[in-house]
Design brief:
It is a single chain. The chain has 519 residues and is mainly α. The chain folds into two domains: 200 residues, Orthogonal Bundle (Fumarase C, Chain B, domain 1); 284 residues, Fumarase/aspartase (Central domain) (Fumarase C, Chain A, domain 2, Up-down Bundle). 52% of the residues lie in helices and 6% in strands. A three-stranded antiparallel beta sheet has the order 4-6-7. The protein has a two-stranded parallel sheet with strand order 1-2. Strand 1, helix 1 and strand 2 form a beta-alpha-beta unit. Helix 11 crosses helix 14.
């Protein structure tokens, strides 16, 4: 197989005989690595057996949904033998009706990985050449232009995945190495002819959960990072407002042992200095307000949710999720509904709620930090200006307004998408998952929450510097190092200045998971 990769085979992610993880998908999506198909004999035999079995069934006049019949409600319509070869191309074309913004390149790569891994299970009756071409799309950075809107999540992501199929056959536009081009032109530049799809291959590409699953992998990685960042922010907010570090004592959480809650409390406890912080504390209140005291309980819900979300997303990723399912080695075809994305829908509905609660938590922390009635001696609005110019400077006043707006929008989007099933396609698809809408909602909630986190990164850094401007700092080395790292990207706010640039840059750093954490 020629995949066009520049990396050695050893550095590529192998698809075909091992389970991929969410981290594998993310690494490919951000181009830290490419892919190659397994050269395992059993894997290749399984793929070949499915395609060959399908060919024999067709030669013997067998009836197979989507191969010798129409699609969906048209499954009762027989397709004459002389038209069977043309049917896949019609499927790709009539589903070319997606709308909305196009998925960004990172998301498209995640989608391609998810479809490749699913088809590589060997239960879809596709040829090896189709898998090779999907790998080439990734390794040559030849990306379909996939509109985000138009999938109800069963029969899978038909319309968005039609853009993958169209790219393979040389139709519609693509991003080829970062530039817009017709798909046919891109294949010509690679000195390859577009693929002619075998009878089931159009359906196999399109009738699955790859879009929602790829997006879910990206959402998981961003949410995982946000939970860790929220713990660091909470530690900084606590110390800046002279909070009680005993709220995070491991002995306290041993009596309510939710694993994620214990984990979050431990991270905050360590950032505050652990036992030494508790013994040296000069707390203003015996009990801090809930957005500080109960932070591990809020973050812990997200941490615990991520454990079962990983399970379900990785199961979906490493599954055959199209229809019909074909076993060429044992010689059977079964028609079912594995394209139904219910597990992804429920996972993304759950994750967006957990993430929106992080936004709400941080919004409340910022409200305390900027208010001199509750921040225990910090300047109003965290203004860094002193002396005669102090009355005209307003620090983070408007940032707090913006943060409340982003939080409100995130909270508004937590309505579960999965309960909004719509009967479609002549009542054939009469119960659908809405998994892709749930995943898109989750990514939007993450985007808004990352903006809230960016505001808190800047505000808690400012608060810590203001608290210790005229006294010896009690920040741990870890927190002091974080403050210094933030300051290398955004300067201390003294005189008022527009903070849009700082916020946008900090948001991008968060999205790129720029700051590492010792965990």
């Amino acid at each position: 197989m020629t995949t066009g990769q520049n990396q050695s085979d050893q550095s590529l992610c192998v698809v075909g005989n091992t389970r991929l993880t969410i981290e594998d998908v993310v690494a490919i999506a951000v181009r830290r690595t490419g892919v190659r198909l397994s050269d395992d004999t059993c894997f290749n035999h399984r793929i070949d057996a499915g395609a060959e079995y399908l060919e024999r069934l067709l030669a013997d006049g067998g009836t197979i949904y989507g191969v010798t019949t129409g699609y969906g409600d048209s499954c009762t319509v027989a397709v004459p033998p002389e038209l069977v070869a043309e049917l896949p191309l019609h499927l790709t074309r009539y589903h070319g009706c997606g709308l909305g913004e196009h998925l960004p390149p990172e998301a498209v790569r995640a989608v391609l990985v998810a479809r490749l891994v699913s088809l590589a299970q060997g239960a879809s009756g596709v040829r090896r050449v189709l898998l090779e071409r999907l790998a080439m799309l990734l390794n040559h950075d030849l990306l379909p232009r996939i509109p985000a809107e138009g999938s109800v999540g069963a029969s899978g992501d038909l319309t968005p995945l039609s853009y993958v199929a169209a790219t393979l056959v040389g139709e519609r536009d693509v991003l080829f190495r970062g530039k817009l081009a017709p798909a046919a032109t891109a294949w010509q530049e690679l000195d390859l002819a577009p693929l002619t799809l075998a009878p089931k291959e159009g359906l196999a590409i399109m009738n699955g959960t790859a879009v929602m699953t790829g997006l879910a992998c990206l959402a998981f990685a961003r949410a995982d990072y946000l939970t860790r960042l929220c713990c660091r922010i909470t530690a900084l907010a606590s110390v800046a407002m002279r909070g009680n570090p005993g709220h995070f004592d491991p002995r306290l959480f041993a009596v309510k042992p939710h694993a994620g809650q214990i984990e979050a409390a431990h991270w905050i406890w360590e950032d505050l200095g652990g036992t030494s912080a508790c013994s040296d504390a000069e707390s203003v209140r015996l009990q801090d307000r809930y957005s500080i005291r109960c932070a591990p309980h809020v973050i812990g819900v997200a941490r615990d949710a991520l454990s079962w979300i990983r399970r379900d997303v990785e199961n979906e990723l490493n599954s055959a999720n199209d229809n019909p399912i074909i076993n060429g080695e044992e010689g059977w075809v079964l028609h079912g509904g594995h394209f139904y994305g219910g597990h992804i829908a429920f996972a993304m509905d759950g994750l967006k709620t957990a993430v929106a609660n992080l936004a709400d938590l941080m919004d409340r922390q910022l409200a305390l930090l900027v208010d001199s009635r509750y921040n225990h001696g910090l300047p109003q609005n965290l203004s860094g200006t002193v002396g005669s110019r102090a009355p005209i400077n307003h620090g983070f006043k408007a940032v707090q307004i913006g943060t409340s707006a982003w939080t409100a929008e995130a909270l508004k989007l937590t309505m579960p998408a999965s309960v909004f099933s719509r009967s479609t396609e002549c009542h054939n698809q009469d119960k659908v998952s809405m998994g892709t809408i749930a995943a898109r909602d989750c990514l939007r909630v993450l985007e808004l929450t990352e903006q809230v986190a960016a505001a808190l990164v800047l505000a808690t850094t400012q608060a810590a510097e203001l608290r210790f401007r005229d006294e010896a700092s009690t920040l741990t080395a870890t927190c002091a190092g974080f403050v210094q790292a933030v300051r290398s990207e955004s300067t201390f706010l003294d005189e008022d200045r527009p903070l849009e640039g700082d916020l946008r840059h900090t948001t991008e750093l968060i999205r790129a998971r720029h700051w590492s954490f010792d965990v």
